[in-house]
Amino acid sequence: MTAVPPPAGPQEPPLLSAHSALVLMIALCFGTAIGVLAYFSTRSLAGAVLAGLPAFGLSVVALHKLIGR
Fold first, then answer.
1. Quick one: DSSP state of residue 43?
2. What percent of the chain has pLDDT over 90?
3. Are 48 and 35 in contact (CB under 8 A)?
4. pLDDT surpasses 70 at 69
5. Distance CA 32, CA 53 (A)
6. Which helix (H) or strand (E) covers residue 39, if one does?
7. Do residues 29 and 56 touch, judged by C-beta distance below 8 A?
8. 33/30 Cα distance (integer angstroms)
9. CA 62, 68, 69: angle at the middle one, nearest 5?
10. Residue 66 has pLDDT above 70, yes or no
11. Is 45 exposed, middle or buried (0-12, 13-18, 19+ CB in 10 A)?
12. Beta-carbon neighbour count of residue 22 at 10 Å?
């Protein structure tokens, strides 16, 4: 019995490029780490979120420029 090859149709491009996925994953780690440290410092969930979100956003911008395509 021979293997049947998959149909040769147009392939969809990936939802995110490898560059975008890497940048978002590292920025998520940075934002989470800053949020956790802020929570341990202040014991305030709102303060931790308000520290983590800008850290995530700034990390995305910085990492996009640092990690070349």
1. -
2. 75
3. yes
4. no
5. 9
6. helix 18-42
7. no
8. 5
9. 130
10. yes
11. exposed
12. 14
The answer to whether 67 and 46 are in contact (CB under 8 A) is no
- 3-state SS, residue 47: helix
* 1 pLDDT more than 70: no
Please give the radius of gyration of the chain, using alpha carbons only, rounded to the nearest integer. Answer: 19
CA atoms of 41 and 32, how far apart (whole Å) = 14
30: amino acid identity, one letter: F
Residues listed for the chain: 69
Amino acid at 44: S
- Find tokens 């700034």 and name the residue: 58
CA distance 25 to 18: 10
pTM of the predicted protein model: 0.79
